[in-house]
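Cross-posting from the modeling subforum.

Setting up a comparison between two proteins and wanted a second pair of eyes on the formatting. Protein 1 (sequence, then C-alpha cells):
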Amino acid sequence: MSTHADDRRQVRQLRLVVEAEDYEAALAFYRDVLGLPEEAAFSTGDGARVAILDAGRATLEIANPAQKKMIDDVEVGRQVAPKLRVAFEVDDSRATTERLVAAGASEVAPPTVTPWQSLNARLDAPGGLHITVFQELSSPEERQEMDGFGTDATRG
C-alpha cells in the first residue's frame, strides 16, 4: 500500500457482530474449533455477553451480483449464499472443513479448487453464518499474473 493511501486510512478494524441464539455453542465453534483467539469478553448482570475473537487481517470484499453468482457456481455449483458470506483463510481447507463439520457445521460444498487457485469449502455455521474456508494454493505474485486479477487501477 502506498504512503498516500496510508495517510488517508481512517478505519483501524473491521468487526463483524453476529447475534447467536446459542452463544456458548457459537463461541466454542469459532474460538475452539476454528481457532480464533479470544481478545476480550464482556458481560453484564442482566445476562448480556459478548466475546471478541481475533480473526487476523480483515478485508471487506465488495462483489457485484454477477461476481457473487460466479463464486457460488464455482464453489458450490448453484446459488446458495445470502448477501453476506464470511470467508476465513486457513492453512488446510480439507482438515478445517472436517473439524468444523464434526463440531456442528453443515457442509454445503466440499473443498473445491477455484479458477483463482484457492481451495474453498462452503459451510453453514453457528450463528446463522454462511462461511467459506479457503486455502491459497498460489502466492499473491502468482495470482497477479492470472487473467482478471489485479486492482481496478491496474486493469485500467
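Protein 2 (same layout):
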Amino acid sequence: MDQKLFTEVDSYLADKLLAEDAPLREALKANAIADLPSIDVSPTQGKLLYLLARMAGAKRILEVGTLGGYSTIWLARALPNDGVLVTLELNPKHAEVAAANIHRAGLSHLVDLRVGPAVESLARLHAENTARFDFIFLDADKPNNPIYLDWAIKLSHPGTIIIGDNVIREGAIIDANDTDPSVAGTRLFLEKLGSYPQLDATAIQTVGSKGHDGFALAIVNEKS
C-alpha cells in the first residue's frame, strides 16, 4: 500500500476533472475550523455521487450522515429546482456547521436538515408517509448500517439507488477475528445487501486520499 501515491493520484484526478469550487473549499475549511472529524468523501468521490444522482434523475434524495455538509452539497447540486434532499445528522454542532455550509453554497432551499438519532428520524419519515426517495446515501455510524438499510428499503421504490460508504475498511471486513463494531456492522450490512431479494447489489474497492475503502451500490428491483 502506497498511501502517498494514492493521495497524489487523487489530487491529479481532481485537478484534471474537477473545476475550482469555492463553496466546497470553504465547507472543508469551516469543518476544520470547527474541529469536525476529517471523514468527508474525497472530491472525486463527491463528484461520483453527484454524477450517479444525476444519472438516476433523482428528485428526492435521502442522506444518512450529514457531518459538515460536504457530500450534502454535492448531492443537492444534482437535484432539479423542485427537488429535495433530506439529510440526517445526530450531532447538533455538526448540523450547525453543515447548515452554514449549505447556505453558503446557495442550496438551503433544496435541503431539509434533520437533527437527532438517525434511526428515530428514519422512523419519523416513514410515519409521515413521506414520498419515496430516488437516491439514498448511507454514510453515518457503521454499526447501525444494517438498520439504516432496512429503513432505506422501506423508504424506497423500484429503481431507487442505495449507496453505502466505507464498506471495505482497509480490508478488515475479511478478518473474522476483527470484532470492531464498525467492521461487524459493515459485514452484516453487506450480508443484508446480498440477501434481500428486492435488491441487486455490488461493491467496489477504492484507493485514494481516504486510503483503502469502497462503496456498496444497490438498486431496488421492480418486485420490492
